Amino acid sequence: MEWNRIGFGTWPLSGDKNGSVSYGKVNEEDSRKALMAAFERKVNVYDTSNFYGFGYVEKLIGEVFLGLRNKIVIMTKGGFVTKDEQNFDPCYLKDSLLESLSRLGTGYVDVYMLHSPPFKTLQENKNIVKFLENIKGLGVAKEIGVSAISPSSGMTTLCSFHIDVLEINYNILDHRAESIGLLDICKKQKIKTVIRTPLGQGILSGKFAFTDDKADIRQQWKEEKVNKDTTVYKKMLSVLSPNSYTDAQNCLRFCLSNPNVSVIIPGMKTENEVTENIKSLDLPLFTDTEKESIKNIYKQSYDS
User: Total domain count for the chain?
Assistant: First the structure.
């Protein structure tokens, strides 16, 4: 199945379910409507994890897409036990995957990824990679991959192991995956790239604000850093050709303008956010001049 270039990042749908922390509290009915609205607008890639709501989001996806399994791509991840504890032992991963499949209501996932594994852990326990290869061989996962802690960690992983999919951070304020050549390498090796945080976890869409919502992990951010990022982003917008697009759409246009990007997975909580983001697919890509200007602003702002 060909992937739509805009997928659905489902971490925000976990809210505070089962004691989780993501981007603030959610309304389950809104979440269901957002998922179905995405499907109706041809979004066919859904990225999730056993960690999101500690199983809540996987169960939600299984219920919403009941009877539609062959029309969507499901990516899930394993490795987190709690928000502070990880376990990549193959026996644990096997049990975790079986539980994920049960919640999702499916006998297989299209992509199974390790969720932010320390490279040292992969290096010291070769059985972890063997586990991935085995589940692929059995058809329990059509493709295998890693959701990397950072672009540099992703680069180290690619140099040591063969995977089909790499999930990494990349957005208009975070060029690391591009500047170290990681996206180029993935393209050459035919590794699919899944781009998370394309909206900078809400900073770039203009939808983040400091509140007292304890279910919003972003409330722990330093206000000074948020203000700097916002200022730099506004400077970047000023070099674009005049347009009436939203901040979110301009951010997604940036990611879509990189031909080495396979799919971007903005986090979405409502039907309106889905509608706004999907429209980006019909908008013009950045010109070479715009991309070069943004790259220069990035270097001046963060590389100095």
Answer: 1
